């Protein structure tokens, strides 16, 4: 996709009337509401989109790019300029007029499955991908060492079924939780849906394989009291499988409707239902459950407050600067330094000795900041020089900056300056999304693999008590399940996070992602009950609130909040039902 336009040389805040947006499959806003973003927010109105389409549609390409006429800039962004800042900088421009697709194209899109529309591929290709994944899920367990240890036929069969249960849970984790990392990047246009899913697939699997925990506890997350189930291995085995199936079932329902819910809360709700019915009230740590419930309020509120402040900070100190492009380029290394240092010190400490760990974290942060600064200067350097050579109206800017408060609303940059700002924060957002994908794969794979490994240990005669070692091939199996889920259904929740809560741009998306990551990191170190999914949703809402209450779609938020409240009870009900069925079946098999 090519966006040729030339900023007027008279002022940095003037966009040439030749500016146009070419249609592409992911940017086109369909008139037929039954298409991919079927419940998409009405926030994207014609009046708020500043460009007119050309009469002829351009050729599709795998990696849409953005170019400036007579310049060397090339961004791997989906449609940066199409998302004008609704906070005031381009509201006066002409509204976009979306041209109606040809009837044959529309009919083809309407008849295609969601996966085909999301990735702009044919229905036949989408079906082939699904068939290959299903075949791999059914056949790969026979290649794992878990089924090749001289076990009897009955134990092998139950181990095979257990692996499929774990795959089902991991599949649904990928389908729902991939939006935590990639939702804002797709919504802002920093990545296309296809780019986001392929990138997440590589990083999620790598994170699960390299960073996934190799030791887990049978009683996940301190929810169940282990002593209650001593000597009841068959019941505990049925309960673990039921918890996987129950959590997976609710996640699949939530993903189908595009609701971002917490996978940790799903597995906790499932285990609470099993423990309460089959172990009694004393089988559940109720204080732990109370902490989980409190995170429904704490997580979104903290995410919203921090993202509100981050976005207002960007608008006040970047948008209102005499040279917003230079201000953005200077702010990016600082943000990377703070983020990498905090993550290196808190999440992945390189040493157990405090002074050494702090020094290593500072070194990592400095290296990251240097590399980002070099990338920005290399990719956007010619635009930064061009923006600096344009003489701003100093007097007007001085008066303008003097009268701006931190919470004030004002017109932001346009033209070349806006392209630089979006370019900088687009790169920043891609980096943060990549890290979150890697971290998510390493962290949340335990929600599927923990109960799976515990169930396999019981089958193979291991202790049902404390710690269980997870084999590397089982970790890889969980990583494959996450990748399969995000490829087949990940686009559904990405649409909610990126499109349906509020309208996102690279700056807004970065503010939400940076705020969510910071809150989760700090809260985890302080021991506060926090949910990454809930925090990110709150952060996206906070960015919307920074632009006005009407910028957040209340209907979508209401659906999400209701799904959060229903998650634990739904998981518990499904777990009780599945445990009843499995105990009956196991009584005949064992």
TrEMBL record:
InterPro entries per record: Phos_transporter
GO cellular component: membrane
Keyword Membrane: yes
Keywords linked to the UniProt accession: Membrane, Phosphate transport, Transmembrane, Transmembrane helix, Transport
Location(s) in or outside the cell: Membrane
GO terms (BP aspect): phosphate ion transmembrane transport
Pfam family name, one: PHO4
Residues that span the membrane, as ranges: 125-142, 157-175, 196-215, 266-289, 295-314, 326-347, 353-372, 420-439, 474-494, 561-581
Transmembrane helix is among the record's keywords: yes
Membrane topology: Multi-pass membrane protein
GO molecular function annotation: phosphate transmembrane transporter activity
Functional description taken from the UniProt entry: Sodium-phosphate symporter.
Matches recorded under PANTHER family: PHOSPHATE TRANSPORTER
Family: Belongs to the inorganic phosphate transporter (PiT) (TC 2.A.20) family.
Name of the protein this chain belongs to: Phosphate transporter
Taxonomic classification: Eukaryota, Viridiplantae, Streptophyta, Embryophyta, Tracheophyta
